[in-house]
Write a structure and sequence with these properties.
Elements (H helix, E strand, L loop, with lengths): L4 E3 L2 E3 L2 E6 L10 H18 L2 E8 L2 E7 L6 H19 L1 H6 L9 E5 L4 H9 L5 H7 L1
Antiparallel strand pairs: 1-2, 3-5, 3-6, 4-5
């Protein structure tokens, strides 16, 4: 069963699977860099009130499953993580500045994650006029 969060008249359950890679897909996310990246992602999630559900740092890409509120668009979420982590990691690990012109590639992949299928939503919408309270309102 899905747990919904509420916020000023809105109930929601929004999750995103975000994947991004270092520039040229270089395998630089190893050892202390990978550990620090994990810490920074958790820090940024907490700062925004987002929830990191799952995180995997591979040598040449990052997988993040994050839950966020309705005010945060997927592009905003991805760019918050990429911008913040790039700035801090390049500052703390100078070899990243020497090896890459920018830490992250410009692209990323984002997939919305949910418990309701498209077919279930379609059926729900198609049966709106059959609801008892709707029938009473139109009588």
């Amino acid at each position: 069963m899905t747990e919904y969060q509420t916020n000023r008249g809105v109930a929601y359950s929004l999750g995103y699977h975000v994947v991004w890679c270092p520039k040229y897909r270089r395998p630089v996310l190893v050892g202390p860099v990978a550990e620090r990246l994990r810490e920074l992602i958790e820090q940024k999630s907490a700062e925004h009130g987002w929830s990191t559900v799952a995180l995997e740092v591979m040598p040449d890409h990052v997988h993040l499953f994050v839950r966020a509120g309705p005010a945060a668009s997927p592009s905003y979420i991805a760019n918050q993580f990429k911008g913040f982590t790039s700035r801090v990691l390049r500052e703390e690990f100078p070899h990243l500045r020497r090896r890459l012109p920018t830490l992250w590639s410009r692209s990323y992949f984002v997939w919305s994650v949910g418990d309701v299928s498209a077919a279930a939503i379609q059926k729900y919408l198609e049966t709106q006029w059959e609801r008892p309270w709707r029938k009473e309102a139109t009588s």
